Amino acid sequence: MSKTVAVLGAGVGGLTAAAELRNVLPAEDRVVLVDRSFTGSLGLSSLWVLRGWRTPEQVTVAPGPSALPGVQMVTGDIAGIDVAERKVDCGASGQIGYDALVIALGAGLNPAALPGLPAALDAGVAGEFYTVDGAADLHQRIGKLESGRVMVLVASTPFKCPAAPFEAAFLIADQLGDKHTDGVRVDAFTPDPLPMPVAGPDVGNALVELMDSKGIGFHGGKAATGVDPNARTITFADGSTEKFDLLAVVPPHAPTAAAASTGLGSAGWIPVDPATLATTADGVFAVGDSTALLLPNGKPLPKAAIFAEAQACVAAHQAARSLGYDAPDTRFTGEGACYVELGDGSAAKGEGHFLAEPAPQVQLREPSPDFHEEKQQQERDWLTRWNTHA
Question: FAD/NAD(P)-binding domain: from which residue to which, for each copy (predicted)?
Answer without folding.
Answer: 4-125, 192-311
